[in-house]
Design brief:
Helix content: 25-40%
Number of helices: 3
Distance between the termini: 74 Å
CATH topology: Ubiquitin-like (UB roll)
Radius of gyration: 20 Å
Organism: Candidatus Kinetoplastidibacterium crithidiae TCC036E
InterPro entries: Mopterin_synth/thiamin_S_b (IPR016155), RnfH (IPR005346), RnfH_sf (IPR037021)
CATH class: Alpha Beta
Shape: elongated
Protein name: UPF0125 protein CDEE_0598
Order of helices and strands: HEEHEEEH
Strand order of the largest sheet: 2-1-5-3-4
Number of domains: 1
CATH superfamily: Beta-grasp domain
Family: Belongs to the UPF0125 (RnfH) family.
CATH architecture: Roll
Largest sheet: 5 strands, mixed
Length: about 110
């Protein structure tokens, strides 16, 4: 394969962690100027996951939110984010309340 042919493609990684903590990590080779939407379409494993809502779940590249029509570059990592199960502030408040009760019971 010629060097020119190789340079017309980019390597992309798509990652997703489901509710049970299972990691889906897929590497694909795509043509230059491909978008996130293209990467999801070309993916063999990610599209089979029924719990992903591609229209409402947030998608990003290296931790930065992106739109589906965003262009990808060589070695980009497309990340599919799940909705939070609970608000982190609420979770922290619950933990603090439990810790305070534990301290009061020890006194």
């Amino acid at each position: 394969m010629s060097a020119n042919r190789i340079n017309q493609n980019i390597n992309i990684t798509i990652v997703y962690i489901d509710e049970s903590g299972s990691l889906y990590n897929e590497e694909i080779i795509m043509p230059k100027n491909s978008t996130i939407r293209d990467a999801l379409y070309f993916s063999k494993n990610i599209l089979s996951i029924k719990s992903i809502d591609y229209l409402s779940d947030n998608i990003g590249v290296f931790g930065k939110l992106k739109k589906l029509d965003s262009e990808l570059y060589d070695n980009d990592r497309v990340e599919i984010y799940r909705k939070l199960l609970s608000d982190p502030r609420d979770s922290r408040l619950i933990r603090l309340t439990k810790q305070r009760k534990t301290k009061q019971n020890k006194l």
